[in-house]
Specification:
Layout (H helix, E strand, L loop, with lengths): L2 H8 L2 H13 L2 H14 L13 H15 L3 H8 L8 H4 L3 E2 L3 H5 L13 E11 L2 E10 L4 H15 L9 E6 L7 H41 L20 E5 L11 E5 L7 H16 L1 H9 L10 H22 L8 H8 L6 H4 L5 H23 L7 H23 L14 H17 L20 H22 L1 H25 L25 H21 L8 H20 L12 H27 L5 H6 L4 H6 L1 H17 L9 H37 L3 H5 L1
Parallel strand pairs: 1-3
Antiparallel strand pairs: 2-3, 2-4, 5-6
Length: about 725
């Protein structure tokens, strides 16, 4: 809801009159109790507004009312944990009170033996205006269903105002006394338990193996100090000639840095038992915490890697986490000081970098296209042509690289997460998990953002739309890469035509959806039904990916050579890039909520701003990779980014779950201040990356190791 809508709603004479009458009642239950008392005195009243209430709920509520009149502790706790109408609503724009969640949940204790019910906390939303709702908490007996709660609250509103509009409705969000356990929850716990036991066993085995090898190494050094190949001692004590190759896993993943896996050539296959033992040992080492943690925290970058990519990955992820924290917490739904947020905070020019934090994902598309292009072109060049590349392995590797960690986190998100907390908005997990129970398969097929078309961002793990779009762009990338390698001009022409088609589709849909930017009012009703027609679609994101593919081709042709750019030209290009990026991010802040922005420039901005920002990101990468980055390259190539970059993929999968658990677990209205937002944002980043380290160690890196063990690259093996 925009500031203009809020002002219009709260300054309407009818709304002021209605709110004024409600404020007279103070506690939302006062009016409901008045109706209840009247119905008890006149049982023959055929117009009883509470006749739809079920009998258990009715009589438990009557007992609650009577015990309140006698000042019983539990009844007073229930009453004072209920929301109250705000007298300063016209000054603060706050027409909600969530009461006291904790007091309500614990109001009926074991000492009240004569009470046949426990308290249930419910959040009710009643629209007194087409664009605005009153949000009030009520604490009622748990025998009351959601429909009973609606009837009781609505009867209270009607008691204070007998002329509520016909379109007035009441919605409820009730917190259950406890959340039921489902078979899928037990399945998730079983998988986590088995995996944990297996990892512990593998780690213990790895510790024993290392000690054994260290002991044998010391013994061998006493016998022959001149021998320097002792690091190749195997478990059976024999010395094997090995060729160790530090090979980065070519994941082509824009979110994650390359993880170095040690490939050790297998001993001669003189006996099948030794071969099986070697494979089992490799599997155990792959899941060992000692091995996986070393791969994460190793500060040495892979040979030939582009160092600045790690800084761009991590900073972009930071930006996205802070943006999603702001998007949820700095919302009128969860905060008390609404007017301060809408009129003061969001009007600040500097805040636009948070409001447009969704642009952080553009870096991932550029990096994704760059990596798949650069690494695939190197493979084509080494293989002697694209005909000799195993494209089936190319596609299968991508699916195996991304899906296991994604599936595991999806399982936890849709099952046991709901049992990990409680709060006012915690029941929202029911809806989120129900969506996953119905559509999890489309997530794992990477089509959930397309089916059913046009889709939305509220589907199961809605933020995972990026993975699906990136997967689809990855699958069509060989068409552009092979053309660039074999027919450069044709490849560029096809890329340009594809980009122009994407611009045309974006312009049409932005016009049809009547989209505006910044604070500019809408241009009217959209001509298309509601849905994610643009944001989550590959035809909208392909332009950023193509920038990465072409940049990867350029870097491939340079083969690590530096490019000398004149200092004046270099400074000019950096200034142009900075100015364009600034206009893309901060441009919407120059609009006004008094009149719509010119439609032509608006459509141009909405259709091209992501492409323009991606060009700026591409310039930063090119400049840093070719020796023209200066201090920017030193900062982005800092080795401290490496461990964070290696867990970036899991951080992306986990970050919104962490933010939702905090937001939906609130037990009070959040008070916005810059310091509070900074503290929470830093906490969300820290918790997300701490969890990402764990999930990367137990799922992502071991799966990479298993792929290397069971599906080795034949070309490297033969080499």
């Amino acid at each position: 809801m925009t500031i203009k809508n809020i002002k219009a709603a709260l300054t309407t004479v009818a709304v002021i009159v209605l709110l004024g009458r409600f404020v007279e009642a103070q506690n939302v239950m006062d009016a409901t109790f008045a109706v209840l008392s009247r119905t008890l005195q006149n049982n023959t009243n055929t117009t009883n507004p509470l006749q739809a209430v079920t009998m258990p709920c009715y009589w438990d509520t009557v007992k609650y009312m009577r015990d309140l009149n006698t000042s019983k502790t539990y009844a007073r706790s229930m009453y004072y944990s209920t929301g109250r109408f705000q007298e300063d609503y016209d000054l603060t724009w706050n027409v909600k009170d969530v009461g006291d969640f904790t007091m309500c949940q614990r109001s009926v204790g074991s000492e009240e033996h004569e009470i046949s019910f426990v308290a249930k906390y419910c959040l009710t939303h009643t629209n007194i205006d087409p664009t605005y709702e009153i949000t009030m908490a009520v604490c009622l007996p748990n025998s009351c269903s959601d429909e009973d709660v609606k009837t009781l609250v609505r009867a209270g509103y009607l008691e204070r105002n007998h002329e509520l509009p016909w379109w007035t409705y009441t919605k409820t969000l009730c917190s259950p006394v406890y959340y039921l356990w489902r078979w899928s929850d037990f399945l998730a716990i079983f998988i986590c338990t088995v995996l944990s036991i297996f990892i512990v066993c593998c780690t213990i085995y790895d510790i024993m193996r290392r000690r054994k090898m260290k002991k044998k190494k010391k013994e061998a050094s006493k016998i022959s100090p001149e021998y320097h190949g002792l690091e190749n001692l195997q478990d059976n004590g024999e010395v094997q000639e090995t060729v160790e190759e530090q090979t980065p896993v070519q994941s082509h993943t824009s979110l994650t840095a390359e993880v170095t896996i040690e490939e050790t050539s297998q001993p001669p296959a003189s006996a099948k038992d030794n071969k099986k033992k070697g494979k089992l040992t490799d599997v155990a080492i792959a899941f060992s915490v000692l091995d996986t943690s070393n791969k994460i925290f190793n500060m040495n970058p892979s040979k030939g890697s582009i160092g600045c990519l790690n800084g761009i990955r991590v900073i972009s992820m930071f930006w996205i986490i802070v943006f999603h924290t702001w998007l949820l917490l700095a919302s009128p739904t969860y905060i008390r000081n609404v007017r301060y947020l809408e009129e003061t905070v969001k009007a600040r020019h500097a805040v636009q970098v948070l409001l447009n934090g969704e642009l952080g994902v553009e870096a991932f598309f550029v990096l994704g296209g760059l990596l798949v292009s650069y690494l695939t072109l190197k493979k084509i060049d080494k293989s002697g042509g694209h005909e000799k590349v195993s494209w089936l392995r190319f596609f299968a590797h991508r699916y195996l690289r991304l899906t296991p960690a994604y599936a595991f986190i999806l399982l936890l998100y849709s099952t046991i997460t709901i049992h990990m907390g409680e709060g006012i908005w915690w029941p929202y997990w029911y809806g989120a998990q129900l969506t996953c129970h119905h559509s999890w398969w489309s997530n794992l097929l990477y089509i959930h953002h397309l089916y059913p078309f046009p889709g939305s961002t509220s589907e199961c793990m809605g933020w995972s739309w990026y993975l699906s779009v990136d997967m689809q762009l990855y699958f069509i990338s060989p068409l552009f890469i092979v053309l660039l390698y074999n027919r450069l001009v044709i490849g560029i022409v096809v890329s340009v035509i594809t980009t122009l088609c994407s611009f045309a589709i974006s312009a049409y849909l932005n016009y049809a959806l009547a989209r505006s930017i910044g604070r500019s009012p809408s241009y009217g009703e959209p001509a298309l039904p509601e849905g994610a027609w643009l944001y989550t679609k590959p035809y909208y994101r392909i332009t950023q990916y193509l920038i990465g593919i072409i940049l990867g081709y350029v870097l491939f042709r340079l083969k690590g050579r530096k490019v000398k750019i004149h200092k004046v030209l270099n400074v000019f290009l950096w200034c142009c890039s900075t100015i364009v990026a600034y206009l893309v991010i901060y441009g919407p802040s120059f609009t006004s909520d008094d009149r719509p922005a010119p439609r032509g420039p608006t459509i141009f901005y909405l259709s091209t701003h992501r492409f323009l920002l991606s060009v700026c990101i591409g310039w930063v990468i090119f400049a840093c990779a070719t020796g023209n980055g200066g201090p920017v390259d030193q900062f982005l190539s800092w080795r401290g980014w490496l461990p964070l970059a290696r867990v970036n993929y899991c951080a992306y999968l986990l970050h919104l779950t962490v933010i939702l658990m905090y937001t939906w677990g609130l037990k009070y209205l959040w008070f916005y201040s810059d310091f509070n937002m900074a503290v929470v944002s830093i906490a969300m980043v820290a918790i997300t990356y701490a969890l990402a380290v764990v999930f990367t160690m137990v799922i992502e890196i071991p799966i990479i190791g298993l792929e290397k063990i069971f599906f080795p690259d034949k070309n490297k093996k033969n080499k």
